[in-house]
Every structure is written in structure tokens, then in C-alpha cells.
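Pipeline run #58 for the internal structure catalog. This entry was flagged by the ingest filter as a single-chain record with no existing model, so it goes straight to prediction. Upstream metadata was stripped on purpose; only the residue string is passed forward. Reviewer on rotation: M.T. Logging verbosity set to normal.
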Amino acid sequence: DCYITQNFETVLNNIRKIDAISRGMNKIVYLVGWQYNGHDDGYPAFFSFNEKLKRPEDATARDSYLYVQKVAKEQYNTNVSVHINVNDAYYSSPLWDLYAEKDLLSRNNDGSYYNNGKLLGMPHNKVSLCREWEAGYTAWRIDEVTEVCNLKYVNTVHLDAFQPHPNRIHGLTKEDEQVAMRKLIRYWRNLGVDVTTEFWQGFSR
């Protein structure tokens, strides 16, 4: 179960306070843990809000998010967007079976899933961004989260741990993955959404 530290009501109150002390300068807030059961849950899916975060007066958590997004932009000079991870894939995800069936996950030479450690006991399996892009699922994921999170309204999204990972069983290198990463960024840019990220690497071209 998730441990709640803030909901949409407290987020908006904090945005109001930050706007007051920053004297109205333009700001961006990226929400972490807004989806499913909290931080890093559900990947590679990121299409549903954590209902425990909603304000009492709203019907759904998405309604609360859209309200906070609108008020923050109109009254507090703040664009509210989301923090997501396009690389990770967990066994508990709503999309795990689909991505495994379509062979969209990075694997080692022996067929095992490539991962770089564990979070809460679950391996950090990785989406093969090359294969996902070629199969059309990258654009589908981008379109879905852009609509669900109203990203065109704020023109930005944050990608956590955005890194290239090899898919050795298919002979795909980190350099191949970087090509797919650039396509992903361009696709979002063509929708009017700017991508920010950590671990920005391998983008010399």
C-alpha cells in the first residue's frame, strides 16, 4: 500500500506559498507518485491517477489534478506536470503481459530480462525503446499520457532516469537506443511538449 505524504489539496497550498515567496516568477512543478499506488508504480503504464490523492470535493483524482493544474497556471504562475519513467517495466504493471508478449522488453543473451537492480523487491526491467518505437507503442504511450495528464496545457513533462540500455538478445546497443530516445523526444516536441530529464547522456548528435 502507498504512504501518502501530500494530496492534491496540499500540493496546491504549497504552490500558493512558493508563488508568494518567489514573487510571481514562472515555475514548473513535476508531480512524483501521482500514478497507480505511488512513485515508480505501474511502469511501463502511466495512465491512471492514484485515487487516494484526490480532494474530497472532486469525483476523481484526475479531476483534482486538472483543477490544481488550472488554478496553479492561472493564479500562481506555475505549470503543473508529471514525473514519469519511460524505461522501467515491472511485473505488476497493467502492461507487463502485453510488453512481454510483444517482445518489447530488453533481454540478455540468455533470454533473461535485462535489469539494473531492484526497487521494493522488484527488478528494474527495461523497455526496449527501439523495439517499442518500431512497434508503434511508444507513440501510443505518449499520446495516452499526454491526454490523461493534459500535457499540452503546460507544454512539458519530466522523464526520470532516461537512459539507453542494451537489448542483447536482439543485438541492440546503447547507441541504437539513443536513436529511439531522440525520436521519442521529437515526437513529444511535435505535440508541443518539452521533455526535461535527468541522466541526459548520449545526445551528441
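catalog note: The helical segments are 8-21, 61-76, 96-101, 129-135, 137-148, 151-154, 174-190.
catalog note: Strands lie at 27-31, 78-84, 88-89, 115-119, 122-126, 156-159, 194-197.
status: ready for reviewer M.T.
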